[in-house]
Amino acid sequence: MIGIFKTNINTDLDKLKVITAIHKEFPIQACTVDIEDCDKVLRVVGQGCPVNEGEVIFLLQRMGYQCDILE
Fold it and tell me: Rounded to whole angstroms, what are the CA distances from 49 to 26, 27, 35, 53, 65?
C-alpha cells in the first residue's frame, strides 16, 4: 500500500533526514519526497503491508515538519 502526504519539507537536507527516519521506523519498500512540487509530496510505499498514515504523520510532526494526508 502507498501513503501520499502533503508536507513542508523544503531542502535536500530535510528530505534526507525524513527519508532516513522513515526507513528506520517502518517496514517500507520505498520513500520519496518531491520538494519541487507545491505540496512537497512525500510518498511512502509499504513493504507487504499498508502504510500507517497516522504514525508517519506523528513521526514527521515530532521532527518539526508539517504533514497531512494528500487528498
Answer: 10, 8, 26, 12, 25
Q: Read off the pLDDT of each residue in 20-24 and give the average, rounded to a whole number.
A: 97
Q: State the DSSP H helix or E strand holding residue 16, giving kind and residue range, or none if neither.
A: helix 12-25
What was the pLDDT predicted at 48? 84
**What CATH number is attached to the domain comprising 27?**
3.30.70.100
- Residue 7, domain extent: 2-69
| Burial class of residue 68 in the structure, from the number of CB atoms within 10 Å of its CB (0-12 exposed, 13-18 middle, 19+ buried) | middle
